[in-house]
Amino acid sequence: MLDIKNLLKLTMEKNASDLHLTVNSPPVLRVDGTIILENDFETLNTETLKNLIYSILTNTQKEKFERDKELDFSFAPQGFDRYRVNVHLQRGNVEAAFRRVPRSIPKLGDLGLPQISQELARKPNGLVLVTGPTGTGKSTTLAAMIDLINNERECVIICIEDPIEFMHNNKKSIVKQREIYSDTHSFAESLKRALRQDPDVIVVGEMRDLETIGTALTAAETGHLVLATLHTPDAPQTIERIIDVFPPYQQRQVRLQLGDCLQGIISQLLLSRMEGKGRVLATEVMIATPGIRNLVREGEIAQLPTLIQTGAQYGMRTMDKCLKELYKKRIISYEAALSKVKNIEEFKIL
């Protein structure tokens, strides 16, 4: 039977990461990165699809969608996993993408993240960034970091999310989760207000614009631990993205700020396992050593990869080295590793 709850149940049973509802197609699942058409269900036409999606929207959400032609929200029917939902138009048809968010928050070690990720989460202040393309588990890594802090420290954690994904209960800490549009107007506005809410830790779901990035840097500079994500592939490009957001006359000041407050950057990729079942996390880690801080302040971004390569004693590693290790352990195929490496000739030598 074509019903949202049946489709979400199927998504859970098949351990899919995403459900896509699109016109002139049956429901589509993404399992281990692969698209699978669920041909046991009928092909969705315009009217059926709109009724199906509108069946889970409130009147307020319908009005917002019809006004803005875009809608992001979280959906958690009782007894199901939580879902991050995006409703959109495609050639005039109402369509939707559902990203599944498991109910339990995983531990950092269980995700395949290196030990240094726990040390970054335990930092008393500064800026810790989790980066990578869409769908590589950045939100899951942030949730695991928040959970570690929640279990170990007595503090106030303010999370600004769009929308709320993992749900956190107060343990040793107080965790306040604010959803964009439901609880606040924007990341930038909420981040400014957060500084007046007695936070110890501030979590920014995504650093999207100049104002958000500028306020996050100020918060990290003034004694708060700021955890945030960016859609950048590696540490050097993350640094460049942050600096380039600002006008030229501010960039020197931003380099100095970033050099002082940055604690580390974890860049992530998800790759299919060699045996074809499940995916594995590959990470690049940059830790803000005195040498790294100095390069950031001076704007010598091109030299960062060299320090990351030689910084293993600090917990650093390049993405190419991580891919090499996963291939040597026969977790990923040679082709999968080769498709993601930056320096192909050097990788072949490794």
Layout of strands and helices, then pairs:
Layout (H helix, E strand, L loop, with lengths): L3 H10 L4 E4 L6 E4 L2 E4 L8 H9 L4 H10 L1 E6 L6 E9 L2 E9 L14 H6 L4 E6 L6 H15 L3 E6 L12 E6 L7 H8 L6 E4 L5 H12 L3 E6 L4 H10 L3 H14 E11 L6 E9 L2 H9 L5 H6 L9 H10 L5 H5 L5 H6 L1
Parallel strand pairs: 7-11, 7-12, 8-9, 8-10, 10-11
Antiparallel strand pairs: 1-2, 1-6, 2-3, 4-5, 5-6, 12-13
Helix pairs in contact: 6-7, 7-9, 8-9, 9-10
Task: Provide a descriptive summary of the structure in words.
The protein folds into two domains: 98 residues, 2-Layer Sandwich (Beta-Lactamase); 241 residues, Rossmann fold (3-Layer(aba) Sandwich). Strand 10, helix 7 and strand 11 form a beta-alpha-beta unit. The chain is an alpha/beta fold and 350 residues long. The mean pLDDT is 93. The protein is built from 14 helices and 13 strands.
In summary, what is this structure?
The protein has helices at residues 4-13, 46-54, 59-68, 116-121, 138-152, 187-194, 210-221, 235-244, 248-261, 290-298, 304-309, 319-328, 334-338, 344-349, and strands spanning 18-21, 28-31, 34-37, 70-75, 82-90, 93-101, 126-131, 156-161, 174-179, 201-204, 225-230, 262-272, 279-287.
